[in-house]
Structures are given as C-alpha cells and as structure tokens.
Amino acid sequence: MKKEIEGLIPHRYPFIFVDEIQSANNDSVIGLKTFNKEDDKMLMGSFPDYEYIPGMIIIESMAQCGGAGIKKAKLADGFFGLAAMNDVQFFKGVTYGNQIRYEIKNIRVSNSIIKQSGIAYFEGEPIAQATWTCGRID
After folding, report:
1. d(CA 26, CA 75)
2. CA 132 to mean position of chain CA atoms
C-alpha cells in the first residue's frame, strides 16, 4: 500500500501519514492510518509519557489522505500545498497502534484549488475535524 500512496502524494518516510485509500470519488475520500511506535518514533517526543499522537499530525494525516484521494480519483493534477486550515477541533486523543479512519468531503476541486473538510475517527467516535484549502504550486 505504501507504494500506491507514494505514487499519489509527494510525501516520503518519515513524513508520510497515510496507509490506505479505501475509496475516492467526486464527493468524498475514505482513508486509513495506523501510527506505530517503530515507524513513527520521531513523533514519540511530543507526549513521551502518554503515547498520544500529536493532534496536528492527525490533521496533517487527514490532509494527506484527502490529497491522495483527489489524485486516486483523478480529480486534479499537479503539485498542491496546504494554504489554509479552518475550524480545527480536537475531541479526544488516540494512542499508537490504533487505526484512525478519515472521512473527507470534497468541497471544491479544480486544477488550481482544492478545498476539503474531514473528520478523523477512532472506533467510530470523532477525534478531530478540520477544513483546509490547498493551492497548486507547480
């Protein structure tokens, strides 16, 4: 699965935070990520006594998932960078070894601007949500 994701977004280890895109279409993207202590040990310094994944890394992971889904569904081409984050909220933490499911809505998609919103879930309960905009930079 990593090779597929590497073909969709420019991120590489240790900063690739998507394991799988389950579905991607005009309206939405569904993706998965399980952070683990071995592959993601650079993140462990954020909360060394608690093993919580940093909230902004979950938001970054959600944005990567959205971008990979856009590419997988062939909705836009080019190199896009994060331009804005809005309405970021954190509801609860999640620890390493647990699978996070991202449900992302495509609000606006063109070859110059992508706007999406998403919710990150652990065991069916929301842990974070955000809206973001990406602009084409190539």
Report:
1. 7
2. 11
In the block, tokens 């994060």 appear at 82
Instruction: Please give, one letter per residue, the 3-state secondary structure of the chain.
Output: CHHHHHHHCCCCCCCCCCCEEEEECCCEEEEEEECCCCCCHHHHHCCCCCCECCHHHHHHHHHHHHHHHHHHCCCCCCCEEEEEEEEEEECCCCECCCEEEEEEEEEEECCCEEEEEEEEEECCEEEEEEEEEEEECC
The pTM for the full model equals 0.95
Residue 130 and residue 59 in contact, taking contact as beta carbons nearer than 8 Å: yes
- Rounded average pLDDT over 44-66: 91
d(CA 104, CA 24): 9
| Partners of 109 in beta bridges | 114
Do 133 and 84 form a contact (C-beta atoms < 8 A)? Answer: yes
How high is the pLDDT of residue 35?
A: 96
Q: Exposure string (b/e) for 80-116, b if CB count within 10 Å is 16 or more?
A: bebeeeeeeeeeebbebeeebbbbbebeebeeeebbb
Match 């804005």 to its residue by tokens.
84
